[in-house]
Automatic annotation (TrEMBL):
GO terms for molecular function: catalytic activity; iron-sulfur cluster binding; metal ion binding. InterPro entries: Aldolase_TIM, DNA_rSAM_put, Endo/Exo/Phosphatase_dom_1, rSAM, rSAM_sf, RuvA_2-like. The keyword S-adenosyl-L-methionine applies. NCBIfam families: rSAM_link_UDG. This is Putative DNA modification/repair radical SAM protein. It comes from Schaedlerella arabinosiphila. Keywords: Iron, Iron-sulfur, Metal-binding, S-adenosyl-L-methionine. Pfam families: Fer4_12.
Amino acid sequence: MLEKIQVQMSVYDKLQILSDAAKYDVACTSSGVDRKGDGTGMGNCRAAGLCHSFSSDGRCICLLKILFTNECIYDCKYCINRSSNDVVRTSFTPEEVCTLTMEFYRRNYIEGLFLSSGILKSPNYTMELIYATLYRLRNVCNFQGYIHVKAIPGTDAQLLERVGFLADRMSVNLELPTAEGLRLLAPHKSRKNILAPMRMVQNRMQENKQEIVLYKNAPRFVPAGQSTQMIIGATPETDYQILNVAESLYQKFGLRRVFYSAFVAVNEDSALPARTGEGPPLLREHRLYQADWLLRFYRFEAKELLDEEHPNFNIFLDPKCNWALKHLEQFPVEVNRADYNMLLRVPGIGVKSAMRIVKARQMGNLKFEDLKNMGVVLKRALYFLTCSGKMMYRTKLDEDYITRNLLNTKERLPDTVSGITYRQLSLFDDVNYTDSGAVQILQA
């Protein structure tokens, strides 16, 4: 039996460990809330969201992104912090998290807090510590900025409710797309325990909306909504299965976002996919995000994009272009007559440009040069559009012909080989701080 060795750590040492341990959690965007400061505290949130910065692999880095603790009683096979791993363990105190958040915010390093955690002793015990942290941050430090917190499955509903009145966004990680995947790789977790807090948050948010109508000064419960995350590639589900799970979550639980995290092999385990030289499935993650966008903003359904005969996305074409090429009977679309929904299905036309087209054509017929000024990507759209009955160039409405030309535009895809690392950007990357210097900053 291994003996635990306890060593006193500085706040900076803990920050190094617990910020690095949080890098695999991608569900941390920070938009969708309107919490204005009252002038007596520090920070505020705008409806348009915070000022985001993104690392090269697409992770949001404008929040202080940390774990409260990397100790965990669970042994999820894919997790670096699983109980059977021999890693350095540490935990913050509520006071330390508050100090870090306030000091980094004052120096304009961050604009909010993303707080997740391993499970220390029990879900309720850990969530009590997180509640104490958020309560101190809001009521003692008077922090009025953005807070995103992870809800731990298995926590009592009353405790989650108390936390939800202090946070702006709450998320419960689905972890893996199917119950079978959870059984194999995360046997301590169950789909029931994960979905229960999702349902509780959804119901309480709906109740809170009615309370706010009746009492304008009523406290707001999770005003930025809830989100979740799925690990992609650790289990053998197809894109079709994953997209149907995401669609169901949007419809049944009213989620703001489903995040897809390409599986990163950090553990050796016979239940996990064998390590290869190809690295994480970043392109697959990229395609799922594109398809997710189509579900949320372009009025597509999962069954339109994939089916059992074609269960995975085209690696060469984005899902919208791929759909259009499989439904050429619906094209070309006359831009001066097509309704808004049909315009959204034209490759190269986005939500904003479709709205501009609908509004502008009330003043007269549009030409291709007008579409370019409205933000339409003509190098894609020209194969699927007519203006006053004419196409931009003489072209064939043929799948092979259009595919070859679309591929010649050299769509910029994530680099799946070079230039990608899975190191979360450190708050100290731009300056060569020494340990003592960092501590001095925190204590300033």
